[in-house]
C-alpha cells in the first residue's frame, strides 16, 4: 500500500493516537489511517476487534493467525511507533484516563460498537478507550460503515454527535477526480485527519488547494 505525500508541522511532533478497527466492512480505511499516522512519525495504539480481524482476513487477505507478526510486516518499517492491544485487554494503558493520548479514531466503526459507546457500555478495550476519550474531553472520531441505516443507528449517531463525538461516515467524494480505490480511501482518511487538525496532502481540495 502506498501512502500519499503528507505534511508534518513542528507542532504535530510526538502526538499519540488510538486507532480502532471493528468488524464493519472497510478495514482498508483503518489500515491506511494507521499507515499515514506512522508515516508522520506519530505513536499509534492499535485495537482490532475479533470481528475486525476476520474482516481484515477476508478483505485484505492478511494471514491473521499471528496477529503481532502481520502488524509488524505491514507497519514496522514506518518512522512512527505503534503498540498493539488485544481487544480483551481491559487493563491496557489506554483504558485509563491518566494515560495521555491526543485522540481516538474508530475506522471503520460497526453499528454494534457505536451502540455500545452511545450507551456507555465499556465491555471491552475498544469501547472503554472510547469512553475514556469522552470523559476526558479528548477527540473521538467514529467512521460508521453501514447501509441502509435504521432509526436506532441514526439515534445513536445523533446522541454521540450531541456529546461532541465527530461522525465521519464512509462516504467518499468524487469532485477531486479519483482514479483508483486508493484515491477514495485516501480521501476519507484525509477527512479524518482534517477533523483532528493534522496537515496532509492526501487529496486535492475544492478550488485546487493541496
From TrEMBL:
<comment type="similarity">
    <text>Belongs to the UbiX/PAD1 family.</text>
</comment>
<feature type="binding site">
    <location>
        <position position="191"/>
    </location>
    <ligand>
        <name>dimethylallyl phosphate</name>
    </ligand>
</feature>
<dbReference type="InterPro" id="IPR036551">
    <property type="entry name" value="Flavin_trans-like"/>
</dbReference>
<protein>
    <recommendedName>
        <fullName>Flavin prenyltransferase UbiX</fullName>
        <ecNumber>2.5.1.129</ecNumber>
    </recommendedName>
</protein>
<comment type="function">
    <text>Flavin prenyltransferase that catalyzes the synthesis of the prenylated FMN cofactor (prenyl-FMN) for 4-hydroxy-3-polyprenylbenzoic acid decarboxylase UbiD. The prenyltransferase is metal-independent and links a dimethylallyl moiety from dimethylallyl monophosphate (DMAP) to the flavin N5 and C6 atoms of FMN.</text>
</comment>
<feature type="binding site">
    <location>
        <begin position="23"/>
        <end position="25"/>
    </location>
    <ligand>
        <name>FMN</name>
    </ligand>
</feature>
<keyword id="KW-0808">Transferase</keyword>
<keyword id="KW-0456">Lyase</keyword>
<dbReference type="GO" id="GO:0008694">
    <property type="term" value="F:4-hydroxy-3-polyprenylbenzoate decarboxylase activity"/>
</dbReference>
<keyword id="KW-0637">Prenyltransferase</keyword>
<dbReference type="InterPro" id="IPR003382">
    <property type="entry name" value="Flavoprotein"/>
</dbReference>
<feature type="binding site">
    <location>
        <position position="145"/>
    </location>
    <ligand>
        <name>FMN</name>
    </ligand>
</feature>
<feature type="binding site">
    <location>
        <begin position="110"/>
        <end position="113"/>
    </location>
    <ligand>
        <name>FMN</name>
    </ligand>
</feature>
<keyword id="KW-0285">Flavoprotein</keyword>
<dbReference type="Pfam" id="PF02441">
    <property type="entry name" value="Flavoprotein"/>
</dbReference>
<keyword id="KW-0288">FMN</keyword>
<feature type="domain" description="Flavoprotein">
    <location>
        <begin position="15"/>
        <end position="195"/>
    </location>
</feature>
<feature type="binding site">
    <location>
        <position position="175"/>
    </location>
    <ligand>
        <name>dimethylallyl phosphate</name>
    </ligand>
</feature>
<feature type="binding site">
    <location>
        <position position="49"/>
    </location>
    <ligand>
        <name>FMN</name>
    </ligand>
</feature>
<dbReference type="InterPro" id="IPR004507">
    <property type="entry name" value="UbiX-like"/>
</dbReference>
